[in-house]
Amino acid sequence: MFKLKLNLICGGALMLMASCGSKNAAPELTDSGLDPNKFVAEVDGKSTGLYVLKNAAGMEVCITNYGGRIVSISVPDRDGKFIDVTLGLDSVQAYFPENNQTDFGAAIGRYANRIDHGRLPLGGDTIQLPTNNFGHTLHGGPTGWQYKVYDVNEANDSTLVLSITSPDGDNNFPGEVTAQVTYTLTADNALDIDYEAVTDKPTVINMTNHTYFNLNGDPSKAITDNVLVINADGYTPVDSTYMTTGEILPVKDTPMDFTAAKEVGADIRNFDFEQIKNGNGFDHNWVLNAAGDISQEVVKLTAPATGVTLSVYTNEPGIQFYSGNFLDGTVTGKKGAVYNQHAGLCLETQHYPDSPNKPQWPSVVLLPGEKYSSRCIFKFGIEK
Question: What family does the Swiss-Prot or TrEMBL record give for this protein (predicted)?
């Protein structure tokens, strides 16, 4: 299905750890300050590690194969200082569900976002999935792929290829699915994420990345001052359980309108608007005007304080903008940072939430003999 190209690995991680060569040597930290030794573990008989991508411009991306999670992204600000613009944790154990039930940085599968009450209509039958969020199935269910160890197929300084085989009946989803996620760091400071999957039975697939971004480079400073543009004239409203209603409504003359640049915090507490109240802020899917044209910029995020910009490109029809509403200070992240409400935001490229129950929306069904393909590009820049 996919080629397996195994590179030499030291202790489950790229040969970055000085301790692999000398027991007495101090650990060699990544540019973002991570200790790779803290990401070496064994989970369900599989090894975990930390993998580092770096380009000639100095941009660094650190990823663990536990959940395919992006742990850090270091980019230059307008003064040339490199800052980490993502939320994450300092060790692989911190990502274990018994310690923190978070989706920080994860490659989400099988189905990103929510499925209404876990009811999955497929082939004339309705399959009941386990529920884990306000009565719905969220991000693949209670034991989604964010809590699995991905196999490492290829690892070098520009590319990391991960794969996972999800058995038939995994969280009650039908079909054995083999999925691959390829992370590529380009010379022009873009992280290109490519997803592929095949199945042996009809099933549904909707993968995404769940990185929390904070372009201030300081999670103690909320993302409410970041400036956002979403090239979308419509969005999918939700009820009080965050479930899509099946409608597509216009953003014009509402707080959901980001067609012109505005601060994330401008309307984030406008609870007189029902959708802000229902989402406890922004936690909605926008229907992208690009309609899958990956050459078009669909989102631009800018931090005035640092000048760092993030442009998003995708072949997906939608994007979930989540403003970190449920971060509540109970999670302590990298370097002891406390993640309070709005410490980061997510931009999850996707098919629309609950598409299996909304036949009027683009299909997420994958059949044997077909290949699922999805792509997202996070391109970083500087605004002087």
Answer: Belongs to the aldose epimerase family.
